[in-house]
Amino acid sequence: MSLAKQNFSNVVEDALNQQISLEMTASQTYLAIAAYMGSDTVALPGLEKFFNEQSEEEREHAQHLIDYQNKRGGHAVIPSVPAPTSEWASAKNAVESALQLEKDVNKNLLRMESLAEDQHDPQLVNMLRSKYLKEQVDSIAEIAKLMTQLNRVGGDGLGLHLFDQTLLKSGVKGVIGQV
């Protein structure tokens, strides 16, 4: 038993490990999307860069949760992550997958917040609210706006090329504005 463990239930510890797994899955999925966007058959370097950045951000979330688990006296379980899909019908389809993934991660974070409240764990509730929940809403809004822009420019051709070049040069804020 950890000497640091206090007011940190096994149920909450298991939920944190589940979230670590989700964050790692998201990271791997975004890496797969980046690889797809960077392939010579898709060749969208702006979306490739965006999803590489998203992959790194999700990996950092997993690392933060591992560090938090250790700080609280828990036992972080590093998951085996199944290989994500590596092919999509289109760039639009890949971004739709990313949007659904962000919503799934958000749903799990909200479940974990509720569980932490039920387990009388104010430290975890505070950490989730201050670090993850607002950021998750912002990520969903950001990807939803990317989706709207992709719908507007069409799924192929010059519009998609110009969209991607703007994303590459100006980043996501240059394409969608502030979230």
UniProtKB/TrEMBL annotation:
Residues 6-154 form the Ferritin-like diiron domain. The keyword Cell division does not apply. GO terms for cellular component: cytoplasm. SUPFAM superfamilies: Ferritin-like. Pfam families: Ferritin (PF00210). It comes from the Eukaryota. It catalyses: 4 Fe(2+) + O2 + 4 H(+) = 4 Fe(3+) + 2 H2O. Fe cation binds at E23, E58, H61, E102, Q136. One of its GO terms (molecular function) is ferroxidase activity. CDD domains: Euk_Ferritin. Its EC number is 1.16.3.1. GO terms for biological process: intracellular iron ion homeostasis; iron ion transport. It is an enzyme of class 1 (oxidoreductase). Keywords: Iron, Iron storage, Metal-binding, Oxidoreductase. Belongs to the ferritin family. Stores iron in a soluble, non-toxic, readily available form. Important for iron homeostasis. Iron is taken up in the ferrous form and deposited as ferric hydroxides after oxidation. This is Ferritin. It comes from Linnemannia elongata AG-77. The lineage of its organism: Eukaryota, Fungi, Fungi incertae sedis, Mucoromycota, Mortierellomycotina.
